């Protein structure tokens, strides 16, 4: 699960790096290199297995060149000590694997954080040795574009800042009860009827391509979630017959519940939709949701009753849920995709495929018990419960997120290996484009470091200093990241 | 305390008004007037005691003309019913008093909120009768520019949005322990040594004039706070000898405490500083602070000991605090100014001038008991305890602020009359320019309506609908106000 970043910087920290590298030290004798913007360039080292023509790397060179020499960068202390000129940074990869290429942009990020600027405006980097790799392979951030629509540029900016934090998975909770902004080519009525506004509040096929490609160049996978069978109210108007009609006594009440699991037409619809989604979103995984299925409506419906009886489910609606999820899993599997599911699917005893990933989010039961149970059953686990960053509180609440230790549960080494990472979640009840960025950054950075850095990196004091400095760097890059506490950044009024 | 706004709009609500007017009704028969932007103008009614040449009013005409016909305004339902053309809004004042003139911009705000735009882009206003006046005369908002520096434009924008909410007092907590951004002409070293950055993080004399004048044109008074004798650490470097040296055993420890109250030089300094401040800030009132005086440092200092003994204060350091505050009150009074003080000054039994205003903020004792005690002693009271909007919590926390009833304490009618209003406070520990606006708006609107509207206006449901609509109007005016809950505004991607 842990890949070596093929970046060794023979240079030394001007600033502290966020998230903290696995190994970072000054070589004996120290020393400082200057980086003259006019001459500095990125290049490929002789003998590197990665060379020109790698689009991810070429794009990263361009991005980081711009970030390194941006006007808003903080100026630090006056330069001192012997300084040599560093005209170039050469990258050297041992082998061309997907992970190696993904690692390069992360290495450039580290490099960029080490570059300082003295009071004369001269760019420099202190000689530093860094060996780095992530602790967990899945370091995700969830955005919810159903409770409030987020314009494309807010998503793209978030992807940029995710990359600065070495997050590598964008979990796009794209639709839910309140609105359906995904413009489907197979079922265009879904967004026409289900978006807040079918013209201005939708993601077109082009928008989705832009997000996926922007993410790819940042070393980020996009895992889209189409949550079913609950959380689908906005699907109803554009997909007649899909949702379960709720009954009041003997008559339909006019309201609707979860997707109707007893009709063949439901599975035809789901197959067609996920067929499209599977090709639009290239990642191997789809997030299938499965959380918070309310049985009330199913219980009220006489046709569901009859079906339950026919299937021998008795009064156990979890069996009906299981029936739906298992068919869904088969459909998704037949499309060549892997599945991630919210924990209820596991809790309710749904029979899962062995490669399913269970996403732990509930707080009704201690989340560490759930992590133990999920991994004991042999499933891979993702942690989110302590990282619901939409749940704000007064003060430095990043600290609670930071202090989480994802492997602190009773279990074997094999179980621990099944924890592939976690996700910071920014649900959208109270968040839209007006407050997303300051609410997310630098708080989500706490989760980023917990998932990237060594388990032994736990000092709040050390983290505070580095996170505060990193936040000033974010301001310099034009990101409206909020302060940790009292103070200021020298460069803080560049972009605002 | 309550003044009639000399504005009667013979027109009717297209939208709900925030804060809710005292009386608002549709005249029999209803009807709608169109407002063609090319022809529409503001003017003075024949016989009005206010006429052309009133700068506040002319500025308000300009501002509201721009706001009325701004590109970002929401479009509403399609027009319908009989429509007449309204080419002008004429204002008519009964007499030229300060309050009348201040009332006009508030009336224009109400008018602007009533103007709708149909789907063809046509501006209209439904015929409405409004009688309006504020319930409390002091409707304040506190910003803290010491814990984080706020750039001038953030203050000016806040003043604009205050006016939209009919706030009329900007309480400028300009300096405190962390930094001293006020550039004093008498003591320039204070900001040179005490600002975060003496060049970029200061308010020059010109900046202050800009704030005061901008506020005046918005119908807002600026009450500046120079908090003493505590909360003055940032004053120390620029004013040698002002702060009390703390002792560790028999020797000075190198740290400093509150202002040193036993030296004549202290009172000379304070007199000169407040002389300057009194002329720079024209409002009759100064906020003198007086909160959270920590006696530890005073207790450690042998010279303070000797003074206490000489004065016969015994071990009662509240008497020393009282000694300082009374001299301060005399100084401020001799400068022709009135005083506002945080509640500790009252709680600690400092002898006050009868016209002092006590600002209630603590939660250690039920704030309504404090309101009762302050007014029973005959002092005017301002409420802030339940309106510390920096203290965020998850969910719709504006509701708690809204449900406060400032007069819900045991006391006589005379006591209730001494409650002149309250202030929403946005302390700066975790707030700077990156998150100020979404954290403040529309949450502070809850306080604005509580202080403006009739005591009977208490329905959360009604408030939710109006506040959500008002927030969409704020977006249309380019204000980054955060959402109340799930949903969207048609116009929300204008400015962001």
Automatic annotation (TrEMBL), chains A, B:
Transmembrane segments: none annotated. One of its GO terms (biological process) is ganglioside catabolic process. This is Beta-hexosaminidase. Residues 1-16 form the signal peptide. Pfam families: Glyco_hydro_20. Its EC number is 3.2.1.52. The keyword Cytoplasm does not apply. Hydrolyzes the non-reducing end N-acetyl-D-hexosamine and/or sulfated N-acetyl-D-hexosamine of glycoconjugates, such as the oligosaccharide moieties from proteins and neutral glycolipids, or from certain mucopolysaccharides. The isozyme S is as active as the isozyme A on the anionic bis-sulfated glycans, the chondroitin-6-sulfate trisaccharide (C6S-3), and the dermatan sulfate pentasaccharide, and the sulfated glycosphingolipid SM2. The isozyme B does not hydrolyze each of these substrates, however hydrolyzes efficiently neutral oligosaccharide. GO terms for cellular component: lysosome; membrane. Belongs to the glycosyl hydrolase 20 family. Its main location: other. There are 3 beta-hexosaminidase isozymes: isozyme A (hexosaminidase A) is a heterodimer composed of one subunit alpha and one subunit beta (chain A and B); isozyme B (hexosaminidase B) is a homodimer of two beta subunits (two chains A and B); isozyme S (hexosaminidase S) is a homodimer of two alpha subunits. The composition of the dimer (isozyme A versus isozyme S) has a significant effect on the substrate specificity of the alpha subunit active site. It is found in: Lysosome. It comes from Amazona collaria. The keyword Hydrolase applies. Residues 136-454 form the Glycoside hydrolase family 20 catalytic domain. The active site is at residue 292. It comes from the Eukaryota. Keywords: Disulfide bond, Glycoprotein, Glycosidase, Hydrolase, Lipid metabolism, Lysosome, Signal, Zymogen. Gene3D superfamilies: Chitobiase/beta-hexosaminidase domain 2-like, Glycosidases. It catalyses: N-acetyl-beta-D-galactosaminyl-(1->4)-beta-D-3-sulfogalactosyl-(1->4)-beta-D-glucosyl-(1<->1')-ceramide + H2O = a beta-D-3-sulfogalactosyl-(1->4)-beta-D-glucosyl-(1<->1')-ceramide + N-acetyl-beta-D-galactosamine; Hydrolysis of terminal non-reducing N-acetyl-D-hexosamine residues in N-acetyl-beta-D-hexosaminides; N-acetyl-beta-D-6-sulfogalactosaminyl-(1->4)-alpha-L-iduronyl-(1->3)-N-acetyl-D-6-sulfogalactosamine + H2O = alpha-L-iduronyl-(1->3)-N-acetyl-D-6-sulfogalactosamine + N-acetyl-D-6-sulfogalactosamine; a ganglioside GM2 (d18:1(4E)) + H2O = a ganglioside GM3 (d18:1(4E)) + N-acetyl-beta-D-galactosamine.
């Amino acid at each position: 699960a842990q890949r070596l970043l093929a970046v060794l910087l023979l240079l030394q920290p001007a600033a502290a790096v966020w998230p903290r590298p696995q190994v970072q030290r000054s070589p004996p004798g120290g020393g400082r290199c200057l980086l003259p913007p006019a001459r500095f360039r990125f290049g490929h080292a002789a003998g590197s297995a990665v060379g020109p023509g790698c689009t991810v790397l070429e794009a990263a060179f361009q991005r980081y060149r711009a970030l390194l020499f941006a006007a808003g960068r903080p100026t630090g202390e006056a330069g001192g000590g012997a300084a040599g000129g560093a005209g170039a940074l050469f990258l050297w990869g041992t082998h061309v694997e997907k992970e190696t290429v993904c690692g390069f942009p992360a290495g450039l990020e580290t490099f960029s954080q080490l570059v300082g600027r003295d009071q004369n405006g001269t760019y420099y980097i202190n000689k530093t040795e860094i060996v780095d790799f992530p602790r967990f392979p899945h370091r995700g951030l969830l955005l919810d574009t159903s409770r409030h629509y987020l314009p494309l540029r807010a998503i793209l900016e978030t992807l940029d800042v995710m990359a600065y934090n070495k997050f590598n998975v964008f979990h796009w909770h794209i639709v839910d009860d309140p609105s359906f902004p995904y413009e489907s080519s197979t079922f265009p009525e879904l967004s026409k009827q289900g978006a807040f506004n079918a013209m201005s509040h939708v993601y077109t096929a082009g928008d989705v391509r832009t997000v996926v490609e922007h993410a790819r160049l940042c070393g980020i996978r996009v895992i889209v979630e189409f949550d079913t069978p609950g959380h689908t109210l906005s699907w109803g108007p554009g997909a007649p017959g899909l949702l379960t009609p709720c009954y009041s006594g003997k008559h339909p009440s006019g309201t609707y519940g979860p997707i109707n699991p007893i009709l063949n037409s439901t599975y035809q619809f789901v197959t067609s939709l996920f067929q499209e989604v599977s090709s639009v979103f290239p990642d191997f995984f789809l997030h299938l949701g499965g959380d918070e299925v309310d049985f009330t409506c199913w219980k009220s419906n006489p046709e569901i009753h009859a079906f339950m009886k026919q299937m021998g489910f008795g009064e156990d609606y979890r069996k009906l849920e299981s029936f739906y999820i298992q068919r869904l899993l088969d459909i998704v599997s037949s499309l060549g995709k892997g599945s991630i599911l919210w924990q209820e699917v596991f809790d309710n005893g749904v029979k899962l495929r062995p490669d399913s990933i269970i996403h732990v989010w509930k707080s009704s039961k201690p989340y560490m018990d759930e992590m133990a149970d999920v991994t004991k059953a042999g499933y891979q686990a993702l942690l989110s419960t302590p990282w619901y960053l939409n749940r704000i509180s007064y003060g430095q609440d990043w600290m609670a997120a930071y202090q989480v230790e994802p492997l602190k549960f009773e279990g074997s080494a094999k179980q621990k290996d099944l924890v592939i990472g976690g996700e910071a979640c920014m649900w959208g009840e109270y968040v839209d484009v007006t407050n997303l960025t300051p609410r997310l950054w630098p708080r989500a950075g706490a989760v980023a470091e917990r998932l990237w850095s060594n388990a032994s990196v736990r000092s709040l004091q050390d983290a505070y200093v580095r996170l505060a400095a990193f936040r000033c760097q974010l301001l310099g890059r034009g990101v409206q990241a909020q302060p940790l506490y009292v103070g200021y950044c020298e460069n803080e009024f560049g972009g605002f």
